[in-house]
Amino acid sequence: MKKTGTLYLIPTVLADNTQDQVISPQVKETVQQMTYFIVENLRTARRYVKSICPELVIEQLKFVQIDKDATAAQVQASLKPLLEQGMDAGVISEAGCPGVADPGAEVVKHAHQKSIKVVPFAGPSAILLSLMASGFNGQQFCFHGYLPIDKRDRLQALRQLEKEMQQRNQTQIFMETPYRNNKLLDDLLATLHPDTKLCIAANITSPEHEFIQTKSISQWRGKLPDIHKQPTVFLIYR
Asked: Tetrapyrrole methylase domain location, by residue (predicted)?
C-alpha cells in the first residue's frame, strides 16, 4: 500500500527579520527536508524559506499558490503529490500560523477528507499574542476577521460587537486593512461607550516597533497612535 505524505503547517514571522527569535528549530529542521510547499503567496513564501534555511536552493523546490481565490479543484490538485507520490508538504501563510484567518484552512480541510495526516507547529499568532497582552477575558473571546468596508455597515458592526461583548462577557477581536487603521480608530472613538476598553496591538513581535496598549475609549481621546499601514489587531472588552 502506497504511503501518503504528511501535511505540515509551517508558521511564519509577523515582523521582518525575527525568524531567529520566534521560529523554533523544529520548524527549520522540517523545512530542510521538504521540497514541496503549498503557500498563500509565492514570492513571500520563497523568501521566508530562504531566510530560515539559507542552504536550500529555492529553484529546486516546488511552490504551489493557494490563496483566498483558489477553487476547490485547485486545492485538491495541490494535495495530489501527497496522495500519489507520498511527498510531504508544508503549508505557509503570509504571516503567522497557517489555517488561522488564512486560506490554508481549505487545504487542511481537504487533507482531512483524504485522510492525510496533518501536523501543526507552534508559532506566532497575532490573534493570541494580542489577547495575551490585552488584559482582557482569555476564557471567552471571538475573532471576527475584517470589519465591513462601508462606513455605515462598519459602525453598525462595531455597535454589535460592543453589545455582544457586554451580553456574553466576551473579548471581541478584529482587524483592518493596514491603510485604513486610522479611520477605524476614529470610528471606534466615535461609536463605542467611553468606558469600553480598547487594546491596540500593532507590529506584534517587532523588537523596535511593537506597540501594545489598553485604555478606555475616553482615555484614548487625543492620544491615538499613528498606526497607518502597520499590521494591527484591535480588541474591545468592558
From this structure: 24-214
